[in-house]
Amino acid sequence: MSEIKRVYYFGGKSADGDGTMKNLLGGKGANLAEMCLLGLPVPAGLTITTETCMAYYANDCQLPSDLMDQVWKGMKKIEEAMGMKYGDPNAPLLLSCRSGARASMPGMMDTVLNIGLCSATIPGLIQKTNNPRFVYDSYRRLMMMYADVVMEKAEGLEPTEGKGIRKVLDEILDEFKHEKGYKSDTELTADELQMLADSFKKTIKKVLGKEFPDDAHEQLVGSIKAVFKSWNGKKAVSYRRIENIPDDWGTAVNVQAMVFGNMGDHSATGVAFTRNPATGENVFYGEWLINAQGEDVVAGIRTPNPLNDDTKNEQNKHLKSMQEFMPEIYKELCDIRNVLEKSFRDMLDIEFTIQEDKLYMLQCRVGKRTGTAALNMAMEMLDEGLIDDKTAVMRVDPSQLDELLHPIIDPNSEKKFTPVVKGLPAGPGAAVGKVVFSSEAAVAWKKRDKHAHIILLRKETNPEDIDGMEVSSGILTSLGGMTSHAALVARGWGKCCIVGAGALEVDEVKKVAKIKGSNVVIKEGDVVSLNGTKGHVYMEALDLMDATENPLFQHFMAIVDKYRTMGVRANADTPKDARQAVEFGAEGIGLFRTEHMFYAKGAEEPLFHLRKMILSKNEEERRKALDDLFPFVKRDMKATLEVMDGMPLTFRLLDPPLHEFVPQEKAKQEELAKALGIKWEDVVKRGEELHETNPMMGHRGVRLGITYPEISEMQIRAMFEATAELMAEGKKPIPEIMVPVTCDVSELDVTKKIVDRVYQEVCTEMKIDKIDYLYGTMIEIPRACLLANKMAESAEFFSFGTNDLTQMTFGFSRDDASAFIHDYTSKKLIPADPFQTIDQSGVGELMEMAVVRGRSARPKLKVGICGEQGGDPASVAFCFKNGLNYVSCSPYRVPIARLAAAQAAIKFGK
Length: 910
Ligand code: PEP
Ligand code: MG
Prior knowledge:
Elements: E1 7-11, E2 14-15, H1 22-37, E3 45-48, H2 50-58, H3 67-82, E4 85-86, E5 92-93, E6 95-101, E7 111-115, H4 122-129, H5 132-153, H6 165-180, H7 190-208, H8 216-230, H9 234-243, E8 251-257, E9 268-273, E10 285-290, H10 294-299, E11 305-306, H11 322-325, H12 327-344, E12 348-355, E13 358-366, H13 371-383, H14 389-395, H15 398-404, E14 408-409, H16 411-415, E15 421-422, E16 424-427, E17 430-436, H17 439-448, E18 454-458, H18 466-471, E19 474-477, H19 485-493, E20 496-499, E21 504-507, E22 512-515, E23 521-523, E24 527-531, E25 536-538, E26 544-545, H20 551-563, E27 567-571, H21 575-583, E28 589-593, H22 604-614, H23 619-643, E29 648-652, H24 666-676, H25 680-689, H26 702-707, H27 709-728, E30 734-739, H28 745-766, E31 774-779, H29 782-786, H30 788-794, E32 797-800, H31 802-810, H32 821-826, H33 843-857, E33 862-865, H34 873-881, E34 886-889, H35 894-908
Parallel strand pairs: 4-5, 17-18, 18-19, 19-20, 27-28, 27-34, 28-29, 29-30, 30-31, 31-32, 32-33, 33-34
Antiparallel strand pairs: 1-2, 1-3, 3-8, 6-7, 6-8, 9-10, 9-12, 10-11, 12-13, 14-26, 15-25, 16-20, 17-24, 21-22, 22-23, 24-25
The protein binds phosphoenolpyruvate (PEP) and magnesium ion.
């Protein structure tokens, strides 16, 4: 049997893999190979495949038996390329061991650096580098990482008293620095670092009960296993849930020759984006640190220097840029930037190290960006000829568009206030909310009040904070740069974020933050406003406004529509919402909930007539109340039809159970009693009679019209008369009547008789020959899906009401499911909340059946969706694949649905 290739070499200008092999080599491994093939300076290394990770798990967390042989074979090539040997006492090669999944999971898995340092190799490295300080600094870093990642986390050891080994060692280091009066690690001498290393060794043995391995081979095997293990670490699993990354992808492991940015003032390390990831501007954008290792930049321990003039800002402008300090290497890096952008045709996020004036590329990957940057970059790259139309459309994640449609701080409101503190603008847009100081508090607040707006304020964030970051509207940190954890994660999610607000003195335990140089104190629960585009923080609640004026947005959406084949409508029930929907590009209204007109501002009068109608004792009373109600209903229908001139508007007949409209306050009940000429007690009694045990499955939807046909009749007449009047005014109204909550064609037939009669009456009264309209039904009950061929004999269109269809298919109450849905998703019983994204295997199967059966009876049957899921990108793609004619969603989600539909057409269209 031929051996499975588990290890892919890269180095020099050659590589076993290439940039297309992300599934097998992970993003990092594939791109390291690609960079070698592009002739860029990359330290040699090996990528262990993602398949090996899954084999490791299938094998009860044992490395496959053939793996290490392949690793040692590959190591020979690394040694040749780097001119050093692993474990060699004279010129020892040191290694890094990093994770790298298919999709980037920043900081969620573990890394070990400086592997291979042990008593056999330390003297040789000191001799070779003539730099004992550097060697012992690297050694103590290895111990800290190894003890934490390999010996504690990967072994599943629970830290005693919640304090992990990393923290214990950090405290030893801090205490030592404190005793010596040192401010920074760089003040520690070689002898002191050597002493610290000895003390670390003893502490590791004492705390973890095992020796730190003094053997290069053992260190490497341990590190590889630990990186595999970190795929199932708590942070990684939690991140995968949020990002919908499948558990069975596994991570690759990259074992790579170490190069050192901490060898003195001619060494450095940095991270950069080939364009500005917050705005999309075409400028090289990055941060670097002299005499440091990569983790120092991301950890936010020191404020990083700006890469160049373009990256200077208030916080770092006094620090030397690489452009000024190392102009030649900066030029080489700029050339690499160009090579990479030309080859990848996208904005990249790169990591580099300079070891004694020699530049090495350690990583490149497609960079995370804000929605604004994604859109701006796609349009600019299109302009530059780097990408084509279709690629531009695919470059913006539909859910990121949301961010562009989300509010920014109203500049007029901002003028009136002064920021109390400034930081770096890491995630644009605005957020106004109440401050909390821990991720747990953020999650708990949100659980208590799902509408709460929370600002998470921390010194810095780390991967343990992601749950709290997710539920927060904005994130504010006192430390860290544009590439700190908070900045990277917030940008990826399009969340408003300010980092490095250095004047904040945050005490997370006492839950207060003082602002240096002022007497302002921020306490838990205080309201603050963040302007993430500028990095300004205010102690007041500022006004917010929309951010759609970007002209590139309009242009982008025009290209999107070129590729879109499926229609996009909006759910709207007022002229104002309809106008907003049209502005966002809606091509019609897919759901006008007629009951909503009674909840609106200024709707007291029609609501009063509706209540009279509901509490009427007999048909006569009811008809009288309906007559009073009629002009209001007609007026509202007409106003919205007028806005939607030339576009279809689907009016749905009254849906909710009537008791929802019965007044609860005594004063309103008394007023109604007076109008009906009955006693207050009778109003209460009639209200009680309408009470239902299970109103979701009670007297609602079409059932109301079956019992009280005069209600449907009034609505239908209002619609036809409004339409006829607009036609007389030279307009082109296109109404559609939709019947809710149906389960049998007979319900449709009964209602259609009323429609036909009223239609004739209105045509005669208004002296017109014909009104164009459609008659159709919501599909919200599984039975309607099963009998769709019958339903389609009467209905000219279907619209899936996936809120109810999901409720009825799962048997999960749409009003109560939030109490337990989280348990289902977090325990992986279901992949996602079916009320947000269509449950494709269950509800979706019913929909598919309904489309096929419906069209078997009526081939031209128009089919749409108007449940909440109609604006969810994955659900939009599902609807496209199943041949729906349109999706309908809330006005703000219309652009998202347009983009998702265009992307589906590009991906799945014929
Ligand atoms: C639905 O059930 O999906 C729907 C759109 O109707 P409503 O939410 O008004 O019940
Ligand atoms: Mg419904």
